[in-house]
Amino acid sequence: MEKRLYTLLQQAKNEDKEGLSAILNQFEKKIEAELRQTSPQNKDDLRQELVIKVMEAVEKYSVEDVPNFEQFIEAQKGKK
C-alpha cells in the first residue's frame, strides 16, 4: 500500500532514507513527463536537477506549519 505524502514527508524530515526514496518514487512519473520535453543529451542532467529540487523541497517543507482542519477553514473565510 502506498503511503500518503504527508507521512512520507514526516519520515524524510526524520532522516529516514526510505521515506525520501518513496517520495522520489511518487514523483517519478512527473519527472519522466518533464524529461520527455527535453533533448536526449540533456535528460540525465535534467533528471539530476529535478531530483535535487524535490529533495530541497522536502528539506525546506515544515510539517509543523501544516494547518489543521479548523485553521484551514478560518483561513478560507479570511480570503472572502
Describe the fold and architecture.
With 80 residues, this protein is mainly α. It has one domain (5-78). It contains 5 helices and no strands. Helix 1 (5-13) runs antiparallel to helix 2 (17-26). The longest helix has 18 residues, at 43-60. It is extended and about 50 Å long. The relative contact order is 0.12.
Secondary structure elements and pairings:
Elements: H1 5-13, H2 17-26, H3 28-35, H4 43-60, H5 69-78
Keywords:
5 helices; 0% strand; mainly alpha; 80 residues; single chain
Spans where pLDDT lies below 50 across 5 or more residues: none
Strand fraction: under 5%
The backbone outline, from C-alpha atoms, is: extended
- Number of separate domains: 1
Helix content: 55-70%
Number of helices: 5
Name the structural class.
mainly alpha
Instruction: Give the SSE string.
Output: HHHHH
End-to-end distance: 38 Å
What is the typical, i.e. mean, pLDDT? 87
Count of β-strands: 0
Major sheet characteristics: none
Our Rg estimate from Cα atoms comes to 16 Å
